[in-house]
Amino acid sequence: MADLGNPRNTIEILNKYKFVFQKKFGQNFLIDTHVLDKIIRAAEIGKEDFVLEIGPGIGTLTQYLCENAREVVAVEIDKMLIPILSDTLYSYSNVTVLNEDILKVDLNTLIRERNGGKSVKVVANLPYYITTPIIMELFERHIPLDNVTVMVQKEVADRMQAGPGSKDYGALSLAVQYYAEPYIVANVPPNCFMPRPNVGSAVIRLTPHKEPAIKLKDEALLFRLIRASFNQRRKTLVNGLKNSSELSFTKDAIQNAIIEEGLSENIRGEALTLEQFAGLANRLSALN
Ligand code: SAM
């Protein structure tokens, strides 16, 4: 099958099937061979790899994955794309397309059945409307991962990589960095997609930590503290935590934990590093 990274081939397929783009599914197909090559290189795809692709579209990135990986499973929600994928991926015997919603697939079972539970690479040009739930699902369910290399909205990539003191720093930065090391591989302009999105995009690679980056007594409490701090971003950390419906510590207990952590009483949550949030979570969990 002709390389769909070439826009002429993509247009030919879209016309052949009279394909109508579905905005609700975040459909912006890649039409740039350089970007496709960059994704394959960044994910370090090799012949031993099992790759999970989320949202194959008409199969553009899938073709590149099939050429380079041992096996590819691609999960696509839009049933109109399934006959197109049978056509564009016809010549590959190492790909399976599942017509499912990725958020409803039991990925641990899928990986156990198809890859003996061994770690996989996730590669995708993600549907932007569900970027965060997809990434959080992969990490929170402890899916065995080598790395996750995905196209996301540029602003979301910046948020994943941000540290304290940056305007992009928030709950997503801390959640991603708790589980993985983020690295922005490339910025990608709208003209690399069809149709063009209204926002800039970026390829980001997330490499899960081999050992947990920080030692925690209560992981759920860490995430409650993070959410409470950034829900009320302009408030001091003490007030943010005291006002949260998810937490029931007294003001005194919160203040003591903050001071024992060596932080100022008036500090805002947005100034804390992941390690400081973890320190606070460990001190407060001792009071539970
Ligand atoms: N991979 C293709 C490419 O790069 O040209 C298409 C990428 S497009 C940005 C996102 C794809 O994800 C679309 O094909 C869309 O139909 C699919 N999609 C959207 N929501 C999905 C979901 N919940 N589960 C699986 N696929 C989904």
Structure description:
- The protein contains twelve helices and nine strands.
- The protein has 288 residues and is α/β, with parallel strands linked by helices.
- The protein has two domains: 7-208, Rossmann fold (3-Layer(aba) Sandwich); 219-285, Helicase, Ruva Protein, domain 3, CATH 1.10.8.100.
- The strands form two sheets. The chain has a seven-stranded mixed β-sheet with strand order 4-3-2-5-6-9-7.
- Strand 2, helix 3 and strand 3 (71-75) form a beta-alpha-beta unit.
- The radius of gyration is 21 Å and the shape is elongated.
Per DSSP, the total helix count is 12
Mean pLDDT over all positions: 96
Report how far the terminal alpha carbons are from each other: 60 Å
Run of helices and strands: HEHEHEHEHEHEHHEEEHHHH
Number of strands: 9
What is the CATH first-level class name of the largest domain? Answer: Alpha Beta
The gross shape turns out to be elongated
Structural class: alpha/beta
The largest β sheet comes out as: 7 strands, mixed
The CATH architecture name of the largest domain reads 3-Layer(aba) Sandwich
| Rg of Cα set | 21 Å
Output the CATH topology of the largest domain. Rossmann fold
The percent range for helix content is 25-40%
The percentage of residues in β strands lies in: 15-25%
> Which segments are poorly predicted (pLDDT under 50) over 5 or more consecutive residues?
none
